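Bug: token stream looks shifted between consecutive jobs. Job 1:
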Amino acid sequence: MLPKELVDLMRDLGVFPVVVGTVDKEGNMHLTFVTWIYPIDERILRIGVSSNSKTAENMRSTGKVAVQIFAPGKSLTCYGSAREIAKKIDGIPFEVSVFEVSVEKVENSLFPGATITGTIPFAHTGNLGRMVELDTKVLKALKGG
């Protein structure tokens, strides 16, 4: 299970950067940076990704997923299975799918003598108004609204 304080932090921040790892049917691994993630609870994560992305293809075909979360004092890897719960989010100018990840195992990924001092810093570039609107629509869909 994910620690409750991490779930609360992810909910409070809204857009929260993580690294998502998937694998295809041939066993080829794929990593991607994702900011559309929302914890439903300590065992369920929802992720929004482009419908035609390699990440989406892999989650549809194998369902295997790992999510690397960096937060103050934590580096956790969540292993689980994913299933697509929405092929497209209405009101988005391109296809974004929603996947629900059932977290089956959580491992501490920090090595002894190390700590994480914050979340992954990132900033939107380009049209900030459109990005905020897009983030708002995707996060609403991830929350189930």
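Job 2, same session, no restart:
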Amino acid sequence: MTMLELCEISKRYKDKLALTGINLTLHNGVYGLLGPNGAGKSTLMNIITGNLRPTGGRVLWNGTEIGALGAEYRAILGFAPQQQGMYDAFTGRRFLSYMATLKAIRRREQPGEIERVLRYVNMTENAGRIIGTYSGGMKQRLLIAQAILGDPRLVILDEPTAGLDPKERVRIRERIAQLSEGRIILVSTHVVSDIETIADEILLLKSGEIVDRGTVEELCRRHGAATLEDVYMRLFGEEGEDGTPHAV
């Protein structure tokens, strides 16, 4: 069984403490990292993926620090960031080919793997279009597609349904649930409905700290709430810091 450990993770930006003493141990399954915008979710995601160094603490994969694993860690990692920094002059298929090469997927295996992930996110028909013509939702789906190239053991999804219409949101949730066997999936979101039905465990992040964790049922029971949405409202208020409603 795979294991991801976060040991006393902290992150400071000049005079702002973004994360404080994060301790987590994750095994195979789907985890929802839930909190309002500005809670520190993206910072935590980028530390787990190795894109950002913590001010303090360690990230371990199966007992070894990720910095020591180097390329071995990157090979088992799939990451879909919230920011849509992509090559607008590329077609969707060319972008996936480029990402597959970066992931050291063998050239002869790339065509089949690319078609697999395109079908997964319902993007086959649009894969020949230039990315610069894509809608925000289409770019988001392409980011998810590149994250699952190569069958990674650790999948990190930062606000994976941002910009998607309701039908596509449901489709992506279902696909995330189907991915969960034999891997760790961490889904960061401020939208309760994105993870309440698919997460094995919910991690509640507020002002850079994990304030509670557990199954939906456990959290509801502890907080005397009927639904996870009620738990969210009690801990974080009705809206995120940017005024975005927390549930859709």
